[in-house]
Write a structure and sequence with these properties.
Blueprint lengths: L1 H22 L1 H7 L10 H8 L11 H8 L4 E4 L9 E5 L11 E7 L4 E4 L10 E4 H8 L5 E5 L4 E5 L8 E7 L2 H6 L6 H17 L8 H22 L5 H18 L8
Antiparallel strand pairs: 1-8, 2-3, 2-8, 3-4, 4-5, 6-7
Helix pairs in contact: 1-2, 4-9, 7-8, 7-9, 8-9
Length: 264
């Protein structure tokens, strides 16, 4: 009985994977991509596969939340999902920051299957799996949860229903169009972001470690990007300016992967 069920599941997964590949070339591309360096994570894979982001790299919780809760993405009621919608897992416990509420994201394919990347580790492959398997990993928060940041590590306890994570669905539009509508849009910022993202996309698939020359190039581009964002935005907090700052933060993390101060 167990073997028959497993065989049926694998057959269904294989058939839908083929269908999903035809409907979404980005999913097909990621399924055939081997990541050799840490960085690309669940939030990035969901945003890339759904067509929001143009490249795969590390995406911070802050960047993900800003995009997913903006007018770019429509909140979809449960039961009305369509293939390509983003499924968002969030913590419901009180007294934590909005950023710390972000748990996981994957792409809804049908009632049984989803496109998923578990973590930002290179060992976490892009995969088509079941909602049940993803929910087993991300549907519940541990009783004692530790939030680790660069500055500190804080332990928080959840109780009762607050230990269950919520599941929301988003259907997102064209990010490029939304950025271009912002009066602070900068072609120079976009050029530098694209240059850095393309370099990262190549580097995370390379078997070799990042060379000193690559790191020097990355630091030069990131410094120029920071300057260009300041010139285009100043202290403005428009959608484009906040998104650009969040992207800079994500790209910097991808390049440097900072060691937390509380571990030093």
């Amino acid at each position: 009985m167990g073997a028959s069920f497993l065989s049926l599941l694998l057959t269904t997964a294989y058939a839908f994977t083929a269908q999903a590949q035809e409907l979404n070339p980005r999913i097909q591309f990621l399924l055939s991509t081997k990541i050799t360096h840490h960085g690309p994570n669940c939030w990035n894979s969901a945003l890339f596969a759904s067509g929001v982001l143009a490249h795969f790299r590390f995406t911070s919780a802050k960047e993900f939340k800003h995009l997913i809760d903006s007018p770019l993405c429509l909140k979809v009621p449960a039961g009305q999902q369509q293939p390509g919608d983003i499924q968002v897992y969030r913590r419901t416990m009180p007294d934590i920051s909005d950023e710390d509420r972000e748990v996981h994201a994957n792409v809804w394919l049908n009632d049984q299957l989803t496109f998923n990347k578990k973590t930002d580790f290179s060992t976490a492959a892009y995969e088509v799996t079941t909602h049940a398997i993803v929910n087993e990993s991300y549907g519940q928060t541990a009783d004692i949860l530790r939030f680790d940041s660069v500055e500190k590590s804080v332990a928080v306890q959840c109780q009762g229903d607050t230990c269950r994570n919520s599941i929301e669905y988003r259907r997102c539009g064209n990010l490029e169009n939304m950025k271009r509508q912002d009066p602070h849009y900068s072609a120079q910022v976009e050029y530098l972001v694209s240059s850095m993202e393309l370099a990262i996309q190549q580097q995370v698939r390379s078997p070799a470690k990042a060379s000193p020359a690559w790191n020097a190039y990355a630091d030069k581009v990131l410094t120029s990007l920071n300057t260009s964002i300041q010139q285009a935005c100043g202290h403005e907090r428009s959608f484009y300016c906040e998104h650009s700052r969040n992207v800079l933060e994500s790209l910097t993390w991808q390049v440097h992967r900072p060691q937390p101060n509380w571990l030093k």
